[in-house]
Specification:
Length: 92
């Protein structure tokens, strides 16, 4: 059995999050620590449904649990990447 963590890196997840955000919102060059919920970014709440859908299709259909298990502080590219990596690295 191949461990997910040996294939997927936090950097790859960050890249996929950036691609999903760009695909849905056309936003590019976001700071890794910028809170994606901040109004100045202009990401409307419904966009997150589509962004998470893209991410879930690549990694796991259980990514939504990150939103349940974390505070709003997870909503940065860096923190989401770490949380996703940890979620998919855990044995089922």
């Amino acid at each position: 059995m191949i461990l997910v963590s040996s294939i997927i890196s936090i950097e790859n997840i960050e890249r996929e999050i950036r691609i999903a955000i760009k695909t849905i919102t056309n936003l590019d060059n976001l700071d890794n620590n910028a809170n994606l919920l901040d109004q100045y970014l202009g990401i409307i709440p419904v966009d997150f449904i589509y962004i998470f859908d893209i991410i879930e299709s690549k990694y796991s259909d259980k990514i939504y649990k990150i939103l349940i298990d974390h505070s709003f502080h997870v909503m940065t590219i860096k923190n989401l990447s770490i949380a996703i990596f940890e979620a998919i690295s855990v044995k089922e």
